[in-house]
Write a structure and sequence with these properties.
207 residues; alpha+beta; Molybdopterin biosynthesis moea protein, domain 2; Aldehyde Oxidoreductase, domain 3; 3 domains; 4-stranded antiparallel β-sheet; 3-stranded antiparallel β-sheet; 6 helices; 16 strands; 29% helix
């Protein structure tokens, strides 16, 4: 990958490395510069910092989307919503309540392939609710090697999921001690009920 300053007139098709404000509008970092973008930049700048991918490299958003697709091959079955790729990032959010189940060995292998290809997740068996961010794919460069990306996709296929709650209700048995304040019993039951509700379960009864 080339990264550095070039004359503005030579920047078409390159990736803008730093956001620039020109003609009252902002060209954001990561923009693939069009002829119109270059013309606007040329009104105010002589040089611009860009990145150009080498043959065989994949741009950050395409790479992040490809890795996310390999990690979550069946979103419904894996209990995850996959976001759109933006600035080399894809978020994996829980569809509903449950616990995170990861293949730690596969994820460790993925993160060792290339420093620019990363996946961060919640810990194994972390409890989540609907919308909880459970994992994030991040490509830490404007592009990565296609070969490295292919290896990352292969080793981490379906390596994360949210296991849904299997039971819909639960009962609670409380031990009572002579002279114990009933308020403590109620508070204990309420605390457990709140935890069950967060998991989409109902408290069936208290004994």
């Amino acid at each position: 990958m080339f990264f550095g300053e070039v004359p503005v007139g030579q920047a078409e098709g390159a990736i803008l490395a730093h956001s620039e404000t020109v003609g009252g509008r902002v060209l954001k970092k990561g923009t693939v510069l069009s002829a119109a973008d270059v013309a606007a930049l040329a009104l105010e700048l002589a040089q611009v910092t860009v990145a150009r991918l080498d043959p065989g490299e994949v741009d950050e958003n395409a790479a992040a989307a490809a890795l996310a697709a390999a990690l979550v091959t069946d979103p419904a079955a894996q209990g995850l919503v996959v976001s759109h790729a933006f600035t080399g990032r894809v978020n994996l959010n829980a569809v509903g309540p449950g616990i995170v189940d990861i293949d730690a060995i596969a994820i460790l292998a993925l993160n060792r392939i290339d420093p620019a290809i990363t996946l961060a997740t919640l810990p194994q068996w972390q409890r989540v609710t609907a919308g909880t961010l459970s994992g994030t794919v991040k490509i830490i460069a404007y592009g990565v090697s296609g070969d490295a990306l292919a290896r990352a996709c292969a080793v981490a296929r379906a390596a994360i999921r949210v296991r849904p709650v299997a039971l819909r209700s639960a009962g609670l048995i409380l031990t009572r001690v002579a002279g114990q304040d009933d308020k403590l019993i109620r508070k204990g039951a309420e605390a457990v009920e709140a935890r069950l509700t967060a998991l989409g379960m109902a408290l069936a009864g208290v004994d």
